[in-house]
Amino acid sequence: MNNTFNLTRFGWYFKKHTIDHGRTYLISLAVAIGIVFVGLGLTGLIGTGWLSQGYQYGMYLFLIWLGGSIFTSTIFSDLGDRKKATLPLTLPVSALERFLVAWLYTCPIFLLVATCCFFGVDALVLSMSHSRIIQNPNKMLDLLSIETPGAFALVMFAVFQIVCFWGAIYFNSLHFIKTAFVFFIVFLGASLINKIVMWLISGGSFSSNSLFFQSDIYVNGNSYGLTLGSGPYIVNWAIFGLIIVLLLTSTFYKLKEKQV
């Protein structure tokens, strides 16, 4: 039997994880969906009854970004407590199988279930409400619209999920709070480094709306664009991609180091 990954053993562990934590996950999901229902209902059932696409989009982002981040931050919570960690760490499963089950629950499964539940609640609220603004009838959220892009929501969800996934295994308590603190410190540090680099390159006043290597330089009242090559956004995504790979790798090996 392969000690790194075995499909039968993986299936057994996935089933056990579901049985052990399924009830807690369902209760947490019910609370999150309840908050979304209240958020949509207060606007859709009170006042004009108009639910704009932007408001629905904001509630959807709230659910998958904040809800997903908090959920992901707790996925390895048992391993941070020596008493609770004894049983999970003595199970006959590999670190890779443990890693994959946790990732499946916090990323694709959570995203699928949360999205389905959101649209179910959205449809329910829309069926109960009726916009009194004739020229703006209520419509269900469209994630294919330019104003409410589903791709952006998914990309940022993946980024937050991976960062919180890393924090879940590296911190033993207050996972979400500590991860959020580290995330903002690193973000501010990266922004500061970017400003310093741009200042050294330009030698003058500048403004930048990109995190890395892009700036508008102002010299004698004239504006000049300064970028790294012809695709600064490609550089940004390449850097983020590298960070994601490093975080996933770091998470896996940290999980592998966990012992009773």
What does it look like?
The protein is mainly alpha-helical. The longest helix has 38 residues. The chain has a domain of 167 residues. The model has no long low-confidence stretch (mean pLDDT 83). 68% of the residues lie in helices and 6% in strands. Strands 1-2-3 form a 3-stranded antiparallel β-sheet, with helices on one face. α2 runs antiparallel to α4, α5 packs across α6 and α5 runs parallel beside α7. The two termini are 23 Å apart. It is globular. It contains 7 helices and 3 strands; from the N terminus they run ααααααβββα.
Main traits of this protein?
single chain, 260 residues, mainly alpha, three-stranded antiparallel beta sheet, 7 helices, 3 strands, transmembrane, ABC-2 type transport system permease protein
List the helices and strands and how they pair.
Layout: H1 7-44, H2 53-73, H3 82-90, H4 95-128, H5 150-170, H6 175-202, E1 205-207, E2 214-219, E3 222-227, H7 232-257
Antiparallel strand pairs: 1-2, 2-3
Helix pairs in contact: 1-2, 1-4, 2-4, 2-5, 4-7, 5-6, 5-7
Q: Which word captures the global form?
A: globular
Tell me the radius of gyration.
23 Å
- Order the strands across the largest sheet as they lie in space: 1-2-3
Instruction: List the uncertain runs.
Output: none
Helix content: 55-70%
State the total count of DSSP E strands.
3
For the residues shown, what is the average pLDDT? 83
| Order of SSEs | HHHHHHEEEH
Major sheet size, sense and barrel closure: 3 strands, antiparallel
